[in-house]
Prior knowledge:
single chain; alpha+beta; two-stranded antiparallel ribbon; two-stranded antiparallel sheet; 4 helices; disordered N terminus
Amino acid sequence: MKTHLICSYFCPKTYLLNLDSQMECCDAESEGFVDVSGVTVARFNETIAYMYGDIKFLKDVGPDTMVELILQKEASGKYEVMATHEICDLCEEVMKGPESDYYAYMKYFGIPEECPFAA
Length: 119
């Protein structure tokens, strides 16, 4: 999976990710807002993994709803942050449609094409 979602303007080059674990929420506040248990990481073969499924929003999404993505790797039994990225206004990105840098990804996770939207 190419990380244009994380690195579209912030990284000097594009990275290739090989995901080994499920998507998860970082804290209790996030768990109260979004359920990512419907997103699955599966393996095509030893070198290719892919992600599919729906993100379920538990609260309404409106203007100024921020999303933060944190990419971590396991090293020596601990997790290290490799990259973070904030989408400061998810509604603004949704309403951009195909002009959004995230458009190709949003449709794969069940995010509606119009915003605001109800949970």
